[in-house]
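Journal club side-thread
Mid-discussion, someone asked how the predicted structure for our own chain would compare to the paper's figures. Pasting it here so we can look after the session.
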Amino acid sequence: MLGIVRDRLSRHSGIQGDESGRILRCASALFFLFLSYYLVKPLRNSQFLTEFGPYALPWIYLVVSVASVVVTKVFQWCSARFSRRQVVAGTFLWAISCKAFFFVALPQGGQAITALFYLWASVYFLLLVSTLWGCLNERFRLDQCQRCFPFIALGSTIGNIAGASLAERLKHAGTFSLGYAALACFFSLLLLWRELAYPVQMKEATRAGDKLAGGFGWLADRSLRAIAMMVLALAIYSTSTDFITQRRLDASIGQAVYAEEIGPLWPDGYAEISALRNLPSARQEPTLRELAQAHQLDADQLVAHYGSYKSEFGNRLSGVFASIFQYQGILGVLILGVLCRPFLRAFGLSAALIVMPTFALCVTVVLMFPLDVMWVQVILVLSGSLNYSFNNAAKEMLYTSTDREAIIQAKPFIEGPLMRLGDVFCSVLTILSGLTVARLGWARSWEEWLIVLPCALALCGWWVLVRRAGKAYQERGALFTHEVPADESPEEALGS
């Protein structure tokens, strides 16, 4: 079977015969890494909403942003002092160990362990992906990247689909999915190990390039300015959409589960039961017994029903998130495989770059109306698939119109701190909007307007800048601006 796949890769894509096995191995490493992550992500979201509720999301996003910067700094420190093999193996084994820890600790419950789990699950994956791709970037020449990377990247999309599908099947299994996630992560490391047979120590020139990452000379480049605005606005849009849609999912699913689990005992108590998440874990049961006494209910029976409610609420949320991620992956494959290249040939990069901001602007209007679970799922599926497939492909094409030194300076800043700045901006905006609405006594719907309006302004800036950059790109007619001799080794390419 693998031989057939290799033959077809060689025949239809210009892939050389000795490269096809390597492509399959690297794509499989990405497959298992994304399979591992999408087994964790639905559990992360559902556990947090069950314990804290959606109005705590801005606070945890702020903590995640700070933690991401700290973890990145530690990773950069290690990269400058250890070989690539040691860094990659250490990072993967750290992630596997954490999954084993949460497999044991998370069932014990409690808000502290849930918050720690959300924080870790929001940080570790980006580190593993950048580690894996950093290894591949060192081991492939540029001419090989152009041939091989599109096929390798398919592994991540298929892993997304498989992981979300498996997570949906395991939604009633609790943290059991973390065991599968740890095993998949280990398989990813094994498949990647052969690429680590030539440990590469970070060179002084590369570390010097890292020091330039905080410089802003690259802002003179129109394409990089557009990409920076794209990443910042996309982070603001994605975070604000997460906040609003998870509020809708929490309310819709929470009320449905309450009607099934507690409604027969206490029909009108949803608001008070939902508000228990604002209390520390140790205070929830005593408060529940006080509510039972105040409403003349059997306290033990109410506590038992509340436990069933929390369990079913978490399972149902996990299933919904898994379904969303699964369909995002399926639609992403269709967009990349069927629509992306014909669209680029027919309309050009300028039109491709404005697809995502145009869609996002439409979503900001739709979110102001009452939406049931189905429409929230449709919005999240379309947003995720367009971003991860179409928009990312267009962004990477725009990067090729800049020189190598500018990319070295700009990309670490754009893909790291600038992206987190968008998360921080939206989190602070959401917190301030909530405080303003509460202080003025307005309806809670006004809070969403105060979140969406600045988001819409950022999207307009994104739309204008990327359209201009796309037109300039097409006028230059530059698809690939850097050529590397075919006989140059990866080490020589890295040094140059």
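Post-session note: The first helix runs from residue 2 to 13.
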